Input
Amino acid sequence: MGGELRYEIGQTAYIKLVLHALKHKTAAVNGVLLGRLSDGDAVEIADAVPLFHSHLGLLPPLEIALLQIEEYYGAQGMAIVGYFHANERFNDFELSNVARNIGDHVHRYFPQAALLLLDSKKLEALPKGKDRSPVMQLYTKDSSKSWKQVGSDGSSRFSIKEPSANIVLLDYISTQKMQDMVDFDDHLDDISKDWLNPELGK
Amino acid sequence: MVSKTEEAQVNRLENQVDNGGGGAWEYLCLVRKLKLRRSDKVLKHGLSILNDPSKRSSLGHEEWTLYEQVAIAAMDCQCLDVAKGCINVLQKKFPGSKRVGRLEAMLLEAKGSWAEAGKAYSSLLEDNALDQVIHKRRAAMEKAQGNLSGAIECLNKYLEIFMADHDAWRELAEIYVSLQMYKQAAFCYEELILSQPTNPLCHLAYADVLYTVGGLENLQAAKKYYASVIDLTGGKNTRALFGICLCTCAIGQLTKGRNKEEKESLELQSLAATALEKDYKQIAPSKLSLLRSTLKSLKLA
Output
């Protein structure tokens, strides 16, 4: 099931999620991962939609968001393949109950679901090194029915598709690109704001 | 909680100052008044005034208020040297001041010296037991250390004395929501609605919590509160319009086979749906078909 599956996240999805977290440094944020199972041995995370930066534990906005997101990406042959969460505090590496619950929901429809947790320490260290690995921790739900971290031993089960993604990310950070990120919260407050973030998809 | 107009106003000013159009002092005053957390901007623009002797002297007595505002912003941005510099200036001007003492304790907090900061706050409280800021800093320290139950305890004790502090009720509600303690969050929002009955945001948060808890009674109550948000905002709140649709759908699922409920609820839902379609058509046409299918799946329950 979730045995030796590889997880690969595309640059666009990766950057959207990190920029969203950086836009709201003082809050917990979350997002959904879109993609597909490819060749039966890898989960391809092709895109991401940043969801909320406040009241992550409330259902109504989440339900509306998931309905619209499933509809849009379903038409493109993609499904919700995971969930992203960034904790409020810098050195907090715990999976909150909200993260687990939403992760469980995604897992019900996609058993190979990926739960990504932002690694803020790794993110902080990014400008100082040449790390090409994602600044996130990957959790999957194994047969014991609990979320377990994958690849913390530096194995290559979780990687970014484009090797220079972190360089692009750092460039975007230096040009304050995170201010342009639109999440579903922003959309609900002003529907003219597009949660697809089309300019960042290029 | 800031209204849309206030937020638009402050954003406009921020843009203006960012692009060199002046108005820094006006911007800083507005941020202070609305109690917004925009520390990187406050730091940048506040320092540009403080580092310029002529701009500084034109502030008169307000100079010291700005030093305090910049000190706090610097601490939030982890620019502790800048914060120390501002505090030193204030110490020289107001030796022995409790207000400056409070800033010194906050600096200890910013450095992560929790125990020392706690001691400093306690001794400050000995002389002034009713200092609301210090009481709340103690709750903030618990939260910063990841001790959410400690923060909850602090806030509850605080609210027993200062029960009119809306910000504290809101903070407590948000902590409860993050821990999925929805009933307790609901209680906080009830207090807020009692004291601010015409603030639609309180009604909205309360409705969201009620919906999240679920069950027929809560869903029916949630629908009423979404309706009051629509009433208070002249139908302009997208979240409330969606809320009506979600509630009607969920209530319909729970009362399947019972005829009474269905007739009255459908009217409200179709009004909300029509309003949403109109808004999306006008403002977000690219999302209109997505909206329509969302509404369709909500009606089909």
